[in-house]
Amino acid sequence: MSPEKQMPATPRVAFLASPSEDAQAALAELVQRHGEHPPEEADVLVALGGDGFMLQTLHRHAGLGKPVYGMKLGTVGFLMNHLRLDDLVARIHAAEPAVLHPLEMVAETESGATVGSLAYNEVSLLRQTRQAAHLSIALNGQVRLEELICDGVLVATPAGSTAYNFSAHGPILPLGTQVVALTPIAAFRPRRWRGAVLRADTEVCFRVLDPYKRPVSATADSHEVRDIVQVTIRESHDRSVTLLFDPEHNLDDRMLTEQFASG
């Protein structure tokens, strides 16, 4: 959504806040200034918190198709704007949109259950015990790696590539490149395998080679599924969410800053 073209002059705002004291105080002040609307009736959602709360907001309300403007009140704020209580409407009108497409995860468990979930940052597979996971990796139905011995592996979106993926030494992916990162976590064998950059429409399938002796969990953002035997991941074609960012510190700039950070 283009906020300049489609946002009303006085947008109806739904304010959503994390439970922290600071976020609740900011919520009360903003509601007093701008009023309050339920998310279903709002033109824009304003999320007050950190990146974790932003992800919660996306999972709960992205289906409404409303743009989301975040303000940082948590410890991490890569997906957020700076907190300023003044000039909110002007900032929303001037904001630059970033359209994100989540990953769709379908996990099959030892019990025979099939669990689906969305991930705006990443889908990660992790060993559940002290023993390393043994996984095979297939891309679009073709096995590309017969056995990966590791602590885990993940598939990250461009927006999520600066999070867990980056900590696991995966690449940062610019927005709009239509690719995802496939990154191993503490790979033991093959020792030199560093992962891959894949087209976003690639279907990635992980199979757990020894699920009873070496159990593995799968997590889509914060939704964990334990004791999996297989996980299939693909970019969603029919789901998207629009985040709004102040032009002086948009998401592209933040991703570049991460790549050239010296600290």
**What is the assigned CATH homologous superfamily of the largest domain?**
Probable inorganic polyphosphate/atp-NAD kinase, domain 2
How does CATH name the architecture of the largest domain? Sandwich
Number of helices: 6
| Range of helix content | 10-25%
Protein name: NAD kinase
Catalytic activity: NAD(+) + ATP = ADP + NADP(+) + H(+)
Enzyme class: transferase
Function: Involved in the regulation of the intracellular balance of NAD and NADP, and is a key enzyme in the biosynthesis of NADP. Catalyzes specifically the phosphorylation on 2'-hydroxyl of the adenosine moiety of NAD to yield NADP.
Structure description:
It is a single chain. The chain folds into two domains: 118 residues, Probable inorganic polyphosphate/atp-NAD kinase, domain 1 (Rossmann fold, 3-Layer(aba) Sandwich), CATH 3.40.50; 133 residues, Tumour Suppressor Smad4. Strand 14 and strand 15 form a beta hairpin. The longest helix has 14 residues. The protein starts with a helix and ends with a helix. It is built from six helices and 17 strands. Strands 6-5-16-13-8-9 form a six-stranded antiparallel beta sheet, with no helix packed on it. A six-stranded antiparallel beta sheet has the order 12-11-10-7-14-15, with no helix packed on it. The protein has a five-stranded mixed beta sheet with strand order 1-2-3-17-4, sandwiched between helices. The chain is of the alpha+beta class. Helix content is 19%, strand content 37%. The N terminus is likely disordered. The protein is elongated, with a radius of gyration of 20 Å.
